[in-house]
Amino acid sequence: MSLEEAREQYETALKVGRKTYKENVHKGRNPYLQVLDEILDGVSIAGHMGLGLLEIPADMIAGTKTAGRTVAFASDFMPLLPVNSEFGAKWIQLCNAHLSDEGIRDPVRCYEYLGRFYVLEGNKRVSVLKSYGATSIPAMVTRLIPQYSDDYEIKRYYEFMDYYQKTKLYQVQFSRTGSFPKLQAALGYEPDHVWTRDEQRTFRSGFYNFSVALDKFTDEELSVTTADILLVWLLVYPFESLKEMSQSELINSLQTIWQDVRALEKGGPIEVSTDDESVEDARSFMEKLKATVFPSRLKVAFIHELSPEVSNWTSAHEEGRRKMQEVMGDKVETLVYMNVGTGFKAEAALEDAARRGVQLIFTSTPSLIAQCRKFAAQHPNVKILNCSVAMAYTGVRTFYSRIYEGKFISGAIAGAMSRSDRIGYIASYPIFGVPAGINAFALGAQLTNPRARIDLKWTCVPGNPLEELKEKGIDLISALDIPVPGWSDGLWGTSRILPDGSTELLASPYWDWGTFYIKLITSVMDGGWDTLNFSKDSEHAVNYWWGLDSGVIGVEYADAIPPGVKALAIILEESIINDSIRPFHRPVVSQDGTVRNDGSKYFSYQEILNMDWLCDNVDGKIPPFEELNEKGRNIARVQGIYRDNIIPEKEGVIL
What we know:
By secondary structure, the chain is of the alpha/beta class. It has 23 helices and 22 strands.
């Protein structure tokens, strides 16, 4: 190889460096290499750790240790000085050695800080190798460990250091804590699994293929990392597909998940539709186009994890479907899939619905969200909804109800009718929306009885909550809400314990899924899916979270309620519907003494939905994940208020 070839390489690299320099200046960014000494000014370092000789990713070399050679390089390590300079001559000599049989053998020396590398010795070696597109560079690495703090970046880095001991991979960098356990689970590993060298090599190969496809797919500067995007991708595609897919197939697969990447980049926001007024707005706006643009007949599938014979929840949704079918007649053709579980059978049901031309799918339990997500990515033209809340997936809309509004009314009834000032409350699972229901009930009881205290029990932990409350002499208990109006079989709603131990229903919120299905399907037929607050290309997940004002929930009142108490309850119900009363617009103090509301604040729906605390007149706690029974843990993994802190369950090994 000749010096002339090395000189030509320098001139090529110089053009790239000067272009990078100009682009950075134009965008108001530092055009030179980052300097670690400047970054560390005022930073407390807890210690140094020698990592030895590593093959470090070239794209993670961010700068230099000292400022000595900074102006010789653009921020991408390409040269900036003229070809006939002393620097240029040395670069060309080094490049010539790289092109020779001898090559560049000596590793560079660098420091690693917060997952990025800063060169102490060997800046020109890095420049030459990067000019040839080297993906990794041998280096002797010393890690600088920052003092631990609650700073999010430091916490994220400490998590990385922990998992680096298991993976030995610098390529895997996440922007959010809690992501490494999810990757372990997605790859079929236990949380503490230490990767073998073969597993590291296999992952590097697949990760490289994914990175190349991502670079071809978009040249945007993203706030999320390649590993973040891979984790979104793994929700839909198995890792082994990275070995089987061509680059064009990988690029197409990125298109199917890109809306969810957008949502992740923006913090995973969830747009909440809290009423159905916009359905009417959409209908009036699109009325002129209805006959020519939107279908006069819709094919809709309903997919249930369990059968009505074993699940009151499924039974309630099926009653809602029948009501919708009765009202809408031949405008809607329905397919029903029962008892599909949450695995292959559920996926098969979704695929069968697509093959049969279904345009809209409702799935009735949160545990089907994973199957819905995979299906939505592969069938973007089929509209799909899952009965759940707080699911940050743009391809799957979710629906539920503000049942806490009914709980507030039930609490007011219980407070007015309690003889002992102690009221029992049996909660289901510590999932999104449940603490809001408990707190609304407690505030309703406090409204009519300032001395009222709520004794909280859970069905998802060992024990018999009903018997435990009876043993305490509590004679008023709020249990699970009735699935549909008129339901009377079993312990439901707010009930009175009679002297013989039997229960008498007083009042209960209920769901009217038929009303929801009618309104949502009508909205879709009228073009409201795209005009209902959110565009087709929205970067937000959408949750329909309707309340008493929509008719999707209501309150059932039994004859056992005294007339005056019932009159008060109806006044409260009407006031919530016309928005003159909101359950949480009052003084609210949590169990730890924190003033959550001084009475002047209106809680946002997101604040209500994400409550993870209890009011100070509630005796009991939100059970931690470790105390839940098996069913409770399965549900908490999907919808639990602390789900992001739960170590995911592993799947089958797929590397």
